[in-house]
Amino acid sequence: MTKLENFIFVDAETYYDKEECTLKKISVPEYIFHPRFQVHLLAAYDIKWDAPKIILPHEIKDFLAQYPADKTACCSFNALFDLSILAWKYGWVAGRMVDALGMTRALRTYDRYNLGAVLEKLFGYNSKGDVIHKVAGMTPQMIKNAGLWGEYCTYAMNDVRSNHNIYFKLLPEFPVEERQIMDLVLRAAIVPKLRLDTELLQTHLDELRRYKARLLQDCGYEKAALMSAIQFQNALENLGVEIVTKPGARGPIPAFAKTDQFMQDLLEYDQAPSEDINQAVQTLAMARLSFKSTLEETRAERFIKIAQLPWSNHEPMLPIALRYGGAHTHRLSGEWGMNPQNLPRDKTKSKLRRALVAPAGHLLVTADLSQIEARLVAVLCRQEALVEAFRRGEDVYASFASVVFGRNINKVSNPHERFIGKTGILGLGYGCGADRFYQMVLSQARQYQIELGALFDRRVAESTVNIYRSLFPRIPANWRLLDQHLAQVINSHNQIQERAWGPVAIKSGKVILPNGMTLRYTLNDDKIYGAKLMENIIQALARIVIMQAALRLANRGYRFVLQAHDELVFVVPKDEVEEAKQIILEEMLRPPPWLPELPLAAEIGVGINYGETK
Fold it and tell me: pTM to 2 decimals?
């Protein structure tokens, strides 16, 4: 990690109101570019100073000029907010960006992660104060006229000092490697590279709205009736449908969730005495799902709004906001209500992927680790035959499906059988039972529009689970081994004892990962069991594999612009694509030093937009 000359902490205090210029109603980019937005002051704390200082708006550019960006590290509590302001409003991007909020999420398990709550947990005090709630809708002059300016400045200086204290409190636990990863994650949003095809996405959004309007008209009900579970139930019962229920917190409730089998069955309802009623039930169910499942529409709207903001290069930019430490296993998650890690892969229904485009003269190059979790499971459970099959490049999905169906299965002639085999290899390593596997296969088949018909039923699901466990016996054996480690070590108050499982160390209340980070557990948590513990460890290790590859590639000049699950996305000049593909593949296939026997495979894709790379 390059040692930088300067290290400053910052906290921007900005105008907000309770009407529209508020982060409760709009995303961070929309807020920063809002016509009412203004920076009231910047609280700064150089580690060379004795105390924080207040930098007034007209002084900010000169203040930042004292800190050459490439020689300065900058830390904030919620860096995606403060450092975006410095980048987009002042053109200043630190050479190393640090987020004390992200550090806290990654290193501590708290119910809340606002600054006041973190201070109470870490230090036993809360210096936040409440002046921020008194200045809503106020300009700096109004704040001064109200006699609140001194309190406001003190509030900001306390915040930036608290940020400093949190950072240095957690620093000894935060590996250098993770500081570099955090910088890459922040940079994907703060220094965006992707463009948005707003015309394509607007057309898609208009089509979605017209489709919903047609459904609403066809089903003959108002939107309110579709959104209300009670009214929706009454509508179905009026058509003669018998409602299926499921357990709820206060008793049985209708199975109206989009993942419930009953709801999916309604889409193909054929039990009525007339085809008109069958069609009415199907339309009603489709209309409810369309209005309840608004993720596609809301994301399209937000993408367009953000891209159309007045970016300095006058192009439709789309910053990719990812939350560092967003998951228990340290995987990244979405921020700013965008969720870019979970864009639909169905090319016929979703245009979101196709709308993400490379800048002029560039292409997108994607690198996706193949079956990384299944490979880690095989290696760590020492299921040698499966490991060797992966190492040889064998089609393990087809091989497993061949055993399940008792005949030779291949990708070309038997795609549906192979799909079931694929779902088994990827989904049965964590103790999944027959019922859950049955629902898993059906759900994914619907997602990819695969018609399984009579090929798959509950009997086949149960047989597949049993064959997996008998064919790969060391995997369930390791579930039982981890059950023992959980009971005897993780749930123990003995801080000295330690057990090893592959490259991880298991201790009281935690699992220490090979990169120095930990998975944290509450003692005697009944939601954790051996197979679930394996899933946590494997997902955390997969995250390390992909992010260590991302670091190596960044050092070779390829910084990712989007990271999704086990995939990295890069923007590459067109005339450098072939060289980039070789370098990217080389680093993606490099086994980690902490598990050199891990056989890796990766797929490289290229396209002018994200959809074309698949």
Answer: 0.91
